[in-house]
Specification:
Layout (H helix, E strand, L loop, with lengths): L15 E5 L4 E4 L5 H9 L3 E2 L12 H7 L6 H4 L6 E7 L5 E4 L7 H12 L1 H7 L22 H5 L8 E8 L1 E2 L5 E7 L2 H11 L6 E6 H9 L4 H7 L6 E7 L3 H17 L13 E5 L2 H12 L1 H5 L7 E2 L13 H14 L4 E2 L1 E3 L4 E2 L2 E4 L4 H20 L11 H5 L2 H5 L1 H14 L45 H7 L17 H6 L6 H12 L11 H7 L7 H5 L6 H16 L3 H7 L1 H10 L1 H8 L28 E4 L2 H6 L1 H12 L5 E3 L1 E2 L2 E2 L4 H4 L4 H20 L3 E4 L2 H4 L5 H5 L5 H5 L1 E3 H7 L11 E5 L2 H5 L4 H11 L2 E4 L18 H10 L1 H7 L5 E4 L2 H11 L6 H15 L1
Parallel strand pairs: 17-18, 17-21, 21-22, 23-24, 23-25
Antiparallel strand pairs: 1-2, 2-6, 3-7, 4-5, 4-6, 8-10, 8-11, 9-10, 9-14, 12-16, 13-16, 14-15, 19-20
Helix pairs in contact: 4-17, 7-13, 8-9, 13-14, 28-40, 34-36
Length: 862
């Protein structure tokens, strides 16, 4: 974005300033995220209809700057059509409202005069398509209602700084129905779009075969893709109607008839010719749209040095030319030795196509230049727009003269110079831009050479190893979402870019490529960037690129431990599994010593858990408990309860150990950078587990972070340990679902479940809810919460204790406090239970405790 001061409006200027539910208007600050606005409006039946796919993090200010559109622009238009006015500050410090032109204002008068003088050039040169956002909207100053505010829309921060935006709202869409049109060829889908839009849909969105195949390869999307994609189509068009239920049904039937008339009608035995898959269930529709809105991220999930590159992805042409344009553009790609990925807005003739290029190489840059020039010539041939909704930036601004002619460039420069004579605001965008293929402004400058440090984990699945895995972050910003899921808890508290997955990935990338100086990977600055990462693993599952920042943080901690050693507090934390048996032998003294934790950097306001008489049990049985350090020494009743419940399933129960010594997953060592010690513990434990598995034993764990380590890190760290081995280490909920004790009944009981972050990341959190519902008959609901914030020792450390509490207060703590006193709170994670107790004074229990209570009630009553 140039060497400049970057202003982040999202941290402090993110409020709704005014809202009139009767008039359907709102005034918002530029840093407000679209999803947050629409959540506020929903209860009154309004929404802001510029529904960009990045709504979870797209700000209204950024959308206005780009003149964004969205999937349903065929009905609602673009930002320019839904902005009433803007209040902005110009470079001289003047703050004023920009709406309909006020010719008593010198600036307005000058712009109005310019537009009138150049009216013929403007009307001749600007393409007649809905999706044209290139250059400045000087045409907004023509006609009977000249609007200078609309000149600022789409100006990309080059003319003024927006302080607030007046929005025109729309009634929420009512009942919706979806027809998923399948096509045997890509050309056929593009040709059909012009006929489909005549049926009056609110959206017609393309999904191509690349997205379908990549979606099938990504576990997060595979079940949804398989549920609505019939056979192996070359392309899909998602056609949405939003009228009355009767009208929706009528139009959906008309769509089926139209597809038949076009030759695309399938039978139960022949899906190859194409056809329409009808979807009326709202939840099913939402899942399908979820795949479409993640289109770019699905495309970018390719693990190769070549990636789909954005530079001709914003072209829009009249619908009657769409099929020929896309066909000829594909020929351009093939001519230059590559292919493209396609998706997006077929309804308005705009497809986000990205040729796959390797921009690390000079060849890739030359290909990009050649493809851009030929692609934009095609756009001009078909009387389209080269910049349809994403804005110009550096990548398209240099082509304005090619598209609009030299006279229009002078007009754009006149606008820029009148607003910003010294080029202070976002210089080089829209006017006087650099060449789009200058290596210095790419992500890969001259002498870009990623380092290959010794690593803890095996990163060979990514080209380039660890650096390649880090480079998978494409800055899509999914980690900036503020609600839903877990990612990214530290950012949700601080609002700082450095405290989210993207920020950390960028720091890692710069460090690994020598752009932050020598030894940056193990530096204090790197440690600071990682300081608030709680290792929740949410990015592993929720980031579309599957950036595993927890593992990457471990690499940093390991490098720092090797270079700087390990601090005393971290040594104490890591040694807990070895020290706990000794401490448990001297309980009064050990618990007294805990009161002096602040001497080692633990927060004095936190209550460290007391050691208890440790759990012990027989070493043999049909089912063997993996008794982790935390439950064994701090909450042994959980293990006793699990033993009784498992025994009630008709199995004998023992506890895993080797020569009387408890087994350990090694996580405390791993989390403090002592990776060799962690591997030693993991090796010892996995050897014991494999022997037990070979003997036909079932192994069950109670603590999620310890149990699930054998499905994640252990698979990477221990050569003999496979995913199949890890899948056989069951969580308690999984065991109970597979082997339900008979006769347990807690119907009528309300249960709130807080899922441990690692349970969510590895897709097993729902098992606890299912066990409560299906085995106990109780009412169970998963709390929509991010990380509890305790995260092992994170919540006890003096420098992070307050951030830990703030994480809990995001949603978990308020939900628990609001629950009736007779509602049971379940949390399988030991640290989660400690956090809930600490911040809410409510006691949460492990699933095993609740199951045991149901068992005791059953015994008493029978």
């Amino acid at each position: 974005v140039n060497d400049a001061l970057v202003i982040d409006f999202t941290k402090h200027l993110n409020s709704i300033l005014d809202y009139d539910a009767d008039a359907g208007t709102a005034t918002v600050q530029p840093g407000l995220v679209l999803d947050n606005l629409n959540r506020h409006l929903k209860s009154d039946g309004w929404w802001y209809p510029v529904d960009v796919s990045t709504a979870s993090r797209a700000t209204l200010g950024g959308m206005a700057a780009n003149n964004s559109c969205g999937s349903r622009s065929i009905r609602y238009g673009k930002m320019q059509d839904n902005v009433r006015a803007l209040t902005a500050m110009t470079v001289d410090g003047t703050t004023r409202r920009f709406e309909y032109a006020d010719t008593t204002q010198a600036l307005d008068a000058d712009m109005r005069t310019l537009a009138r003088q150049e009216q013929n050039e403007i009307t001749t040169r600007f393409p007649k398509v809905q999706r044209r956002v290139g250059g400045y909207n000087i045409d907004a100053l023509l006609g009977d209602a000249p609007h200078i505010g609309h000149l600022l829309v789409g100006s990309e921060g080059t003319l003024a700084l927006t302080k607030s935006i007046d929005l025109k709202l729309s009634p929420v869409l009512g009942t919706k129905t979806l027809g998923v049109c399948h096509f045997p060829t890509f050309y056929a889908a593009m040709d059909a779009a012009q006929y489909i839009v005549k049926l009056g849909p609110v959206a017609v969105e393309l999904v191509d075969h690349n997205m379908i195949q990549l979606g099938r390869d990504i576990p997060q999307f595979r079940p949804v893709v398989e549920s609505f994609v019939q056979g192996n189509p070359a392309a899909l068009l998602l056609v949405e109607f939003a009228e009355t239920p009767e009208e929706n049904g009528k139009r959906l039937n008309e769509l089926v008839e139209l597809m038949g008339d076009l030759g695309f009608s399938w039978s139960d035995t022949n899906k190859a010719t194409g056809g329409v898959f009808k979807v009326e269930d709202p939840a099913f529709q939402a899942r399908i749209w979820g795949v479409r809105t993640q289109g770019l991220n699905i495309m970018m999930s390719m693990r190769s040095e070549g990636k789909p590159v954005s530079f001709v992805e914003d072209c829009a042409v009249p619908l009657e030319h769409l099929a020929d344009f896309t066909s000829q553009l594909s020929d351009v790609f093939h001519k230059h030795g590559t292919d493209g990925t396609w998706y997006a807005h077929a309804s308005v003739g705009l497809l986000h196509v990205r040729p796959v290029l390797n921009l690390r190489q000079d060849l890739g840059l030359r290909q990009m230049r050649a493809i851009a020039e030929e692609a934009f010539d095609l756009v001009a041939k078909f009387k389209g727009s080269h910049s349809g909704e994403h804005g110009d930036g550096i990548v398209r601004s240099e082509f304005h003269e090619r598209m609009y002619g030299s006279k229009m460039i002078r007009i754009f420069e006149t606008v820029k110079d009148r607003f910003d004579p010294d080029a202070v605001l976002n210089p080089g965008k829209i006017t006087r831009s650099p060449k789009m293929d200058e290596r210095a402004i790419t992500r890969w400058p001259e002498n870009y050479a990623p380092q290959t440090p010794d690593t803890v984990f095996d990163w060979t699945a990514w080209p380039g190893g660890l650096a390649g895995a880090v480079e998978m972050c494409n800055n899509n910003g999914a980690c900036r979402k503020s609600v839903g899921g877990v990612m990214c808890p530290s950012f949700r508290v601080t609002g700082a870019e450095k405290d989210l997955t993207r920020g950390r990935a960028n720091v890692l990338r710069l460090a690994l490529t020598g752009q932050l100086g020598e030894d940056a990977f193990a530096s204090d600055d790197m440690a600071d960037a990682m300081a608030l990462c709680v290792g929740c693993k949410a990015c592993k599952s929720e980031c579309p690129m599957s950036i595993d920042m927890a593992k990457m943080k471990t690499e940093v901690q390991s490098a720092r431990a090797a270079k700087h050693g390990v601090a005393m507090r971290e040594k104490l934390i890591a040694a807990l599994p070895r020290m706990a048996p000794i401490a448990s032998a001297f309980l009064p003294v050990s618990n007294l010593a805990l009161k002096f934790g602040r001497l080692f950097g633990f927060d004095k306001t936190r209550r460290l858990p007391n050691f208890q008489k440790p759990y012990s049990g027989p070493e043999t049985g049909d089912v063997l408990l993996f008794a982790d350090t935390f439950n064994r020494h701090f909450d042994p009743e959980t293990l006793h309860a699990a033993e009784r419940v498992i025994a009630a399933t008709g199995k004998t129960v023992g506890v895993m150990s080797v020569s009387g010594r408890p087994l350990c997953c090694g996580r405390t060592y791993l989390s403090t950078g002592q990776t060799d010690r962690a591997k030693q513990e993991l090796q010892r434990t996995t050897d014991a587990f494999r022997a037990a598995q070979d003997a036909g034993k079932t192994i069950v764990g109670l603590e999620p972070s310890c149990t699930l380590m054998f499905r994640d890190e252990a698979v990477n760290l221990i050569p003999e340990w496979s995913e199949e081995h890890g899948a056989q280490i069951l969580t308690f909920a999984e065991y109970i679902i597979q082997n339900p004790p008979a006769g347990l009944d807690m119907s009528g009981l309300d249960v709130l479940v807080h899922g441990h972050c690692h349970q969510k990341a590895l897709g097993v959190a729902q098992h606890t809810v299912d066990a409560v519902k299906n085995v106990l008959g109780a009412n169970a609901q998963m709390i929509d919460s991010s990380c509890c914030g305790m995260a092992g020792s994170f919540g006890y450390q003096s420098e992070t204790a307050e951030v830990s509490r703030e994480m809990a207060e995001l949603s978990l703590a308020p939900t628990v406090r609001a629950a009736p006193k007779d509602t049971v709170v379940l949390a399988d994670g030991f640290s989660c239970r400690c956090q809930i107790k600490d911040v809410t004074e409510r006691k949460a229990m492990n699933l095993a405790i609740l199951m045991d209570k149901a068992l005791q009630d059953h015994v008493t009553n029978h």
